[in-house]
Specification:
homodimer; alpha/beta; four-stranded parallel β-sheet; globular
Chain lengths: ~400, ~400
């Protein structure tokens, strides 16, 4: 059965060249930049409604007309999406910020927001007849790809740092993926895949070198709009590794505006990184449109060890268009934020998620956010995945 | 604001004596048996509808009129409930059982179904003015209580076996609970609480010695009914430790029938235990109405190390009334089921959840379930909580 997807084509995020979505695509080889999915929003205006979406099951496929899968039988789903938006009344009171929420991406298959992108990307891979996939990962994307590939019957090869959080290795292996532990970080893993992929027949699922993970992540923006009753929050704090979620949400807000479903100003997008690896913060501070490779990345927030995001130009553009900023926090601030959040609000965050709380405290001190702002912190995974931190 | 709860009173599950829900209650001291919450279902028939529930947010509080909290301000929520029902088409094909589903209780706060019972119990504790709670736990209930108690501002004391899965200890401590590791298992933990609680001023949150965890667990039954479009599956396989979920679902089905929202036969309730601790299976096989204390309990499914459930009589009654059975599986079968489920369906189950898959295979071989049955397996927690199994 058709999903009634309104996908028209893919377009290069730099030169605008059009690519056919009915064939396997990667990124724009001319510009070396990501492709973006383009939907027929004129049709969408006629066919879609808020009520249509809201009456469907609470998972990301409720937005299926604005997702890239064409046939329902290709959807590979573990029930992902529509994660709760949890108010933080106690912390909010302490910080004099009464309208703070956590978008809790721990309550999702594989315990991390990576499930969104990989549910959609694996579904599309299945639709396009792809049989073998490979991914370089800081950890959680590996676990998510392993799960969805297993479910789709697609062979899965994962390259992760040798010092990856142990549970990322375990979840990938238990799901049957072939895992290679690499001395180095995600960029070293990516290099190994690039060298071997032609010979091995792997389709490369690297962040934004595959066009559809972005579409899965976009649904975080759609869900926020729906959960705020078709308005948008004032500020979103997002821990930026590869940055797909930040770019995706910014795309979602454009789609929503073009449909006329939201009005007024869009959220300020706050990119949060760890001081031990903050290429986006540096590029933002220096007024640059792209980031530089960050050498000797080191932080307890494993997911933030991304020394150069392939979508850096899109990340920086979204932050600036939104009137946001990019800031960095220390590992000590992250650890302290993890404890605060758990002890005051009962949410056992991942370190990447906790970085957003640390950043919000800083923004409050600097007067960058205030009591009237509706603020969303992204908890991108469950704290359960990081026992090493507490040993 | 009122929740419009229709709670009338509590009643002893044995003698029927009535207890006032506006006061703190525990269990029937005369019978030494659990109390059950009784709602005004005549009012419910007039005031409630399927549509009313279905139009609310996808969490367990959508059923609030049939939950025990009286004031909305006392609800302590992390967005728990309405977990996905995931079809198992590949495993189903292999086993010639085309209608098998997993109710995935990993996608919930704290990563386990214990969140349901403790969200409701902590909310009620807050409503009743309780300030300090204690719990004996095989692991996951400790993590869940720690989180909700932190959120409610209630002091929390947890007693768990010294060899508890490490992550249960970590999540409890990070959420600020005071944890005592006990040489022994959950029954030894319970003894320590019983000895000290008067002196320490603890309210005892032990399974079914507190009346409201059952009400939270009951919502699993309500959700199944709603997810099957107000019908019920034919068979439910449930891993029985304390058994609150099994009893709770059986209560939910009674409520649904009394409201006239379902008709026809109710599911066969299959209790699954590990051979290393299977007091319910033994009592069922011996035709007894209560279980005997199981000595030297040992199994990799930590949550099933419950040597004597306080609600054993209710568990056995529900199994028999439903036409179900109680069966045991080995740790080897559990481990093999964990791998099968992960590699074929992409679901990284907890060992307790995997026990239900092992049991279903056995029931299929014995002709106890067949291709026309709609079967639900309960995955009661995320596999992420059990890295020890893979070391």
């Amino acid at each position: 059965m058709s999903t009634d997807s309104l996908l028209k084509h893919l377009a290069c995020s730099n030169c605008g060249s059009v690519f056919d979505h009915r064939e396997i695509q990667t990124f724009c080889l001319t510009c070396n930049k990501p492709l973006l999915a383009v939907y027929d929003l004129e049709q969408a205006k006629k066919k879609l409604s808020k009520e249509l979406f809201s009456n469907r099951l609470p998972n990301l496929w409720r937005y299926r007309e604005l997702l890239p899968i064409l046939e329902g039988k290709h959807i590979v789903s573990l029930g992902e999406g529509f994660t709760p938006l949890i108010p933080l009344s106690s912390l909010g009171r302490r910080l004099a910020l009464p309208h703070v929420f956590v978008k809790d991406e721990s309550q999702i298959p594989t315990g991390s927001f990576k499930a969104r992108g990989l549910a959609v990307a694996v579904s599309k891979a299945l639709e396009l007849g792809i049989k073998r996939v490979a991914i370089p990962t800081a950890g959680n994307a590996g676990g998510a790809l392993a799960a969805y590939a297993a479910r789709a019957g697609i062979e899965c090869f994962i390259f992760m740092p040798a010092d990856v959080p142990r549970l990322n290795l375990i979840e990938s292996q238990v799901c049957g993926a072939r895992v290679t532990l690499v001395k180095g970080i995600i960029s070293d893993c990516a290099k190994m895949i690039a060298e071997r992929k032609a010979e091995m027949g792997w389709f490369d699922m690297s962040t934004l070198k595959e066009p559809y993970r972005l579409e899965g992540k976009k649904t975080m923006g759609w869900e926020l709009a729906e959960q705020f009753e078709w308005t948008l929050p004032d500020v979103i704090l997002y821990p930026t590794g590869g940055g797909t979620g930040l770019i995706g949400m910014w795309r979602a807000f454009s789609e929503l505006a073009e449909l006329g479903w939201i009005s007024g100003s869009r959220p300020r997008m706050i990119s949060v990184q760890s001081r031990g690896c903050d290429p986006i913060t540096r590029a933002f501070g220096d007024g640059k449109t792209e980031s530089e490779f960050y050498h000797n990345a080191q932080t307890l927030a494993a997911g933030l060890r991304v020394p150069k995001a392939f979508g850096d130009a899109l990340i920086l553009k979204a932050i600036r268009e939104s009137g946001g900023v990019a800031i960095s926090v220390s590992d000590d601030e992250i650890l302290s934020a993890m404890k605060d959040m758990a002890q005051v609000e009962g949410i056992f965050m991942c370190p990447e998620g906790a970085a957003t709380l640390a950043a919000m405290k800083r923004l409050k001190e600097e007067g960058e956010v205030n009591a009237s702002d509706r603020i969303v912190l992204f908890n991108t995974a469950t704290g359960l995945k990081y026992p090493e931190i507490w040993q």
